[in-house]
Each structure stands twice: as structure tokens, then as C-alpha cells.
Amino acid sequence: MKRLAALSLLALGLASFGAQAQPEFEQVEKGRYLATVGDCTACHTSDPQKPFAGGVEISTPFGKLVGANITPDSETGIGNWTYDDFKRAMSEGIGHGGKRLYGAMPFTAYTKVTDEDNRAIWAYLQTLEPIHNPVETNQLPFPFNIRTSLIGWNWLNFDRGVYQPDMSKSAEWNRGAYLVQGLGHCGTCHTPKNMIGGDKNDNFLQGTEIENWWAPNITAANHQGIGRWSEQDIKDYLRTGVNRYDIASGPMAEQVKNSSQYWKEEDLQAVAVYLKSLGVKDEKVPAPLKGDDKQMIAGRHIYFDRCSACHGSSGKGEKNIFPQLANNALVNAPEPVSLAHVVLAGSRGVDTDARPTAPAMPAFASIMTDEEIATVLTYIRNSWGNSAPAVSADDVKKMRERLTP
């Protein structure tokens, strides 16, 4: 009888443990997913063998910052933080001990994250292996390294508060808005910045230059945005890094590889619905250069000699291999930053679980002059339904200098 009683008590205890462990497991798994949605790896993992131990250099117009160690190491990570410390960092941009955080840590977006989601992320971070890795995060020159200046920066650029649903919209639309504005922090790259690095929210997601790439307009504008993209085009791009119009490269390739390829189908759909709702009023479309323009004539010859074999004589490309140049929003961007970058240095698309073979673009820096590249880009930017300002040899020269070690 004693043995039966003991077994009964053990079974009861195991059942009780299971009831408690299941919610904890679910919360950790939810946090793992949300940390992936937030692409925490991008700034906090420099060595894949040391996940989340920091060390990623982040270039800003004001100097370099370095991603912090966010493993639970008590000396070099966040092992001495409480949940309230973590939530304050996410919601207010203030870390452990009252240290103010720079906007490179996108707390201006993360402030919209709910307490429930923050708790899940925190629960996941506590399960990481503590890694001792000292990181000096602030490597900005004087006076930008003075953190008290962030009081004024926040006053000008930061609106604190959890995302508030728009009750006139669907639950799906609100989920998409929550992801794009919050954890996805899409505006951190795609929203133009003011002189001190804050977002120009009146031009939300309308494109800007970042790290020698053009983060394009991702509103539903037809000419410079993704208005021609279908919801499926958006989902394909975020899931695989490829659609009929574009192939992810540069920082966006990293985002797809580390983050959006793992998003749930319903979250990709919600984001697509939300982005397609963001129209731009009075989009100004420049008139294309005329076909008898000297740059257009010379550019056409270069294009058919160097580019048409892959991108086609009419700029239609080859689906999922060579992007379509005709009616392409990135081609129509106000600045030819990404185009010059890719032609000079080449590019390899992102490899994902869905598309493990990444298409590539060769570099032409050694075989084409700045004038030739400028000329062919001008032709591409004013052909097949495209219209954008001409590219100068000086534009290409500046990019060449930036890309030269």
C-alpha cells in the first residue's frame, strides 16, 4: 500500500510538473519565434558559434556602434538584468543601470511590442548558453559618444507606446501593422532619416540609403514602391528572397536568411496585406529621357553588349534567376545607389531553405569605366516603362571609392 501511495504521489507530481512545464515550453518557443521575427541575430551574432554574444559592427553616419552581448552571462551579457530591465530597454531605450541606448537598437519600433510578447522573448533569452564575450558597444567619436545627448534625441525622435490597433481595420491588417511597425522594425532601414538619424515618419517606408545600398520604397506606390507587386510577390520575396521583380541582396538578403524565411504563413500574409494598403498620395513620376539622348543611345549599345544576355532585350529578365528590370521600383529609385553597387561589386542572392541555390551577378568594376556604368544605368532607368534621373560618372566614382578597401 505504501508503494502504491508513493507511486500515486509521484504520478500526481509528474502531472503537476507537466502542467507547469508545458506553458513554459510554449512561452520559450514563442519567444524564439519572436526573436527571429525581430532578427536579433543581425546585430547580436558576429560568430555563429557564439549566438547572441554580440560583436557585430554597425556603421552609422556618426561612427560605429557594436551589437551587445545578450546572452545570460552575468559579467558581459544580461545575466544581471531583470525582466523589468529588459522591458525598459525594449520600450524606452534605457538599459540596465539607466544607460541610454542609441537608436541603432530600434527601440523606437520595439516600443510597440506588447508586454506578453516581451515576456516570451525574455523567457527565450534566459535559455541561451551564457557566453563570456566583452563588447564595447559605444565606439562613436566625441561628442556623439556622450549618452546624455540622447535625452534630446529621444525628445525629438521617440514616441513611446505599445501598438494600438486600428478598430476600423481587420485583425489581419492590424497584425501586419504590428509586425512591420514593431518587431519587424522595417522603418529602421526603409524610412528616410533626418539630420540626427531619426525617422521622418511623414515619409514612412518611402526609401533611403543605408550602408551603400538603397533600402527601397515599400509602400504601394506604383513607380518607386511595390504597388505592382501582388500579395503573393511580397510573400515570395520575404520567404525565398526572390520574386519576379527582385532578388534580395545586401542587408535585405541577410534579413531574409536570418528572419523572414522562417515567418509563419499567416504573418507573411498579414504583412503583405498591410504593405499593400500604404499608398502614397501624389506620387511624382519624372518624364523618361528621350531615346535620342546621347546617354540613351550609348547606354543602349552597352546594355545589349553587357546585360541583355541575362536580363533580356526588353528588360524582362528570367523568372527567379535574373530580375526583371522593366517597371522595376528599385530601378526607378531617386538614387542609383544599389544599382551602382551591384554593377561595380557584383552580388549574390540569398540562399534559403526554399531556394538553396542563390543566383549571382558578376562584378564589372575592373572591365567598365565609371562613364560606361553611368551611361548604361541611365539607359536602364529610362527604358521599358522606367523613368528616373540620369546617373553621372561622378555618382559611380563615389560608389567605387566607398567600396574600395
Automatic annotation (TrEMBL):
- Entry GO terms, CC: plasma membrane
Taken from the record, one Pfam family name reads Cytochrom_C
How, per the record, is the cofactor bound? Answer: Binds 3 heme c groups covalently per subunit.
Which residues does UniProt assign to the signal peptide? 1-21
Source domain of life is Bacteria
Keyword Heme belongs to the record: yes
Keywords, sorted A to Z: Cell membrane, Electron transport, Heme, Iron, Membrane, Metal-binding, Repeat, Signal, Transport
Q: Which GO terms describe its molecular function?
A: electron transfer activity; heme binding; iron ion binding; oxidoreductase activity, acting on CH-OH group of donors
Q: Which cofactor is recorded for it? A: heme c
- Give the Cytochrome c domain ranges: 26-129, 171-279, 294-384
Give its localization: Cell membrane
Question: In which residues is heme c 3 bound?
Answer: 307, 310-311
Residues annotated as binding heme c 2 = 186, 189-190
Q: Where is heme c 1 annotated to bind? A: 40, 43-44
Do the record's keywords include Electron transport? yes
Record-linked SUPFAM superfamilies: Cytochrome c
Query: What's the name of the protein?
Result: Alcohol dehydrogenase
